[in-house]
Amino acid sequence: MSYPGKIAIFVHPQKETPGIAAALGRAYPVWTGIGAIGTVLIGILVFKEPASFWRLFFIFTLIASVIGLRFGMSNEMTFRPMRRFKQELPQKECEEILTHAYRGFLSVIGNGGYPYALPINFLYADGHIWFHCALQGHKMDAIKVCDKACFTVIDDPVKEENDWWYHVRSVICFGRVRVVSEDAERLAMLRKLGSKYFPEGYDMEADMVKNAPHAAMLDFSIEHMSGKRVREK
């Protein structure tokens, strides 16, 4: 296959995934440089081609450039901007929704690569989203394989007077999930989560004694957050 054909095959997916274009722009020169360096070295070592000063100088320059490109690559994900930006919520409003919403949907990559989304109680605190769960199960297995996740919250819909349609606000967060390993942190966040849901006067400490040993705590570190206001008309 010709090089234009190869380039077309690699570039085409960027129509679907914007982040691919940036990665391709760095990866392709690296692999091309490695191929060029290997070809020249084989020529010198195997076929006894001349190894002049300037030839070696530019080979080492190319090696340095390839190393620089490789270590200059960023693993940072480029998230899509909101298409209907006029409906986008400001950061503060997104955080207010996360603070007061009762329940959300955590989505992870489940068995066989299928998305696994589940409704779950949560706590938004200190710029992180916290969940509790059993020590074993589908969710825990998925996170151990891939820590990338998505969390979605839909606020209570509001209907204006004399209107039949609703105004709905939603927030979507992308990030990574870790299982809290330090016991002091786990217990502290379990108490904070309990304070959100337990009724006043509930004996939280008795509940902690009974259930905390069997509960894991998950920390969702937010990498990207966006909110949207929709008028369902």
Write the layout of secondary structure elements.
Blueprint lengths: L2 H9 L6 H28 L7 H19 L19 H10 L3 E6 L5 E6 L2 E3 L2 E7 L3 H8 L2 E7 L12 E13 L3 H15 L6 H8 L3 E17 L2
Antiparallel strand pairs: 1-2, 1-5, 3-4, 4-7, 5-6, 6-7
Helix pairs in contact: 2-3
Outline:
This protein is an alpha+beta fold. It has seven helices and seven strands; from the N terminus they run H-H-H-H-E-E-E-E-H-E-E-H-H-E.
3D structure, described in words:
The protein is an alpha+beta fold. It folds into two domains: about 5-70; about 85-230, Electron Transport, Fmn-binding Protein, Chain A (Pnp Oxidase, Chain A, Roll). Helices cover about 40% and strands about 25% of the residues. The protein is built from seven helices and seven strands. A seven-stranded antiparallel sheet has the order 2-1-5-6-7-4-3, sandwiched between helices. Strand 3 and strand 4 (about 130-135) form a beta hairpin. The longest helix is centred in the N-terminal third of the chain and has 28 residues, at about 20-45. The radius of gyration is 26 Å and the shape is elongated.
Strand order of the largest sheet: 2-1-5-6-7-4-3
CATH class of the largest domain: Mainly Beta
Mean pLDDT equals 85
Gyration radius, rounded: 26 Å
Terminal-residue CA separation: 52 Å
Q: Which architecture of the largest domain would the CATH scheme give at its second level?
A: Roll
Please describe the biggest sheet, giving its number of strands, its sense, and whether it closes into a barrel.
7 strands, antiparallel
Q: Looking at the structure, what is the overall shape?
A: elongated
* Oligomerization category of the chains in this entry: single chain
- The overall strand count is 7
Structural class: alpha+beta
